[in-house]
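Late entry, written up from scratch paper. The run itself happened at the end of the previous shift, but nothing got recorded in the book at the time, so transcribing now.
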Amino acid sequence: MLFEDTYRTIEKSTEGAFRDRGSKFLAYAYPVSSENELKDVLSQLKTEHPKANHHCWAMRLGIDRTIFRINDDGEPSGTAGRPILNSLLSHDLTNIVVVVVRYFGGTLLGIPGLITAYKSATEETLKQAKIIEKTVDDIYTIKFDYLLMNDVMKIIKDDCLTVLNQNFDNNCSIQVSIRKMQINHTLAKFDKLNTVVKYDYTL
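Output as recorded:
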């Protein structure tokens, strides 16, 4: 199969901590689906930790896992964002952001020490996380005549589709999510019924 239609992410936000020579590294992991959510996460953590020295982070997005962003937030280049990202890569996680908040303890840790600290803090928060596998689904709206209701519902049941929205007037419409891998198979069935199928978006 050319297209992978599953990906790994975390179920809900988690926290972890790592300490080294007086410095505290507090790690926070969040499931996200777009870059816009990063702003809210950062502003929330900056409000909670106004006296922290650094708020470093890494984010990985996309079902094909190609989008990533890192930020060292004043730490020496490559010592914070990159080690955080490397942990996300090694766990094969996407649609996730990890922010590590550092309180400086007065002793310089050096480049290797910083890399270890940011990686260890990230690993601690990921240990707390429940990792889940999600399928890549396309969302479609099916429009059909009321007389076809039983046939349409049978396809939905047989193909284990998730109903997101429904509207039953004279002209009925149902919004469903269809797993990427089975789209052609399912749409062919709807096609035979003379329904109108419109693609909405990919989830």
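The chain has two domains: 6-134, 136-202.
(Scratch paper discarded after transcription.)
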